[in-house]
């Protein structure tokens, strides 16, 4: 698990990095809001620890900008601010949790684990593919893949039924809500589009064709 620490106070930054690495986390460090936003966008961290008061771009604005393109990565604010108005502002702009400075490391660690467990509950994976069902995001090799609504629904259905042969009529009913005789060639069109967008190699035969029957998601 990769945690991005966006904190400009040297003592807190060092304390967090050392403690989290001892717990087995990989840590990325940013000392300004601008660098923090860039790392959040480019490095796909599993969780972000975000200071409220930062140089260049404050934590609230960073959170707001990041949430416009990523709705699933948990964000925990580390802050001396504790008024109701400030807490509401943080939550409204995408924060998942707050912890007030100074804090005990074990309390922070438990809050981190709660957020990561919640995130993992929404993740369905197969090989190098990860789907976040709640945020409707798809990743391959940690890279975000842009899919249409039906492409996402089709991939999600196959992965929810991985290692099981999905018949064409099942797929039409689940993805297109079609319960009558219909040309199932539409499925082939979308499968081909998925394979192309996901850039599967010959070794990554994750969506297998079961001739005369349908498709199966399998490693």
TrEMBL record:
Keyword vocabulary terms for this entry: DNA-binding, Phosphoprotein, Transcription, Transcription regulation, Two-component regulatory system
Residues of the Response regulatory domain: 2-116
CDD domains tied to this protein: trans_reg_C (cd00383)
Taxonomic superkingdom: Bacteria
Residues bearing PTM 4-aspartylphosphate: 51
Record-annotated OmpR/PhoB-type domain positions: 121-219
Molecular-function GO terms, alphabetical: DNA binding
PROSITE patterns reported in the protein's UniProt record: OMPR_PHOB (PS51755), RESPONSE_REGULATORY (PS50110)
DNA-binding listed as a keyword: yes
DNA-binding region (UniProt annotation): 121-219
Matching InterPro entries: CheY-like_superfamily, OmpR/PhoB-type_DNA-bd, Sig_transdc_resp-reg_receiver, WalR-like, WH-like_DNA-bd_sf
Protein name: DNA-binding response OmpR family regulator
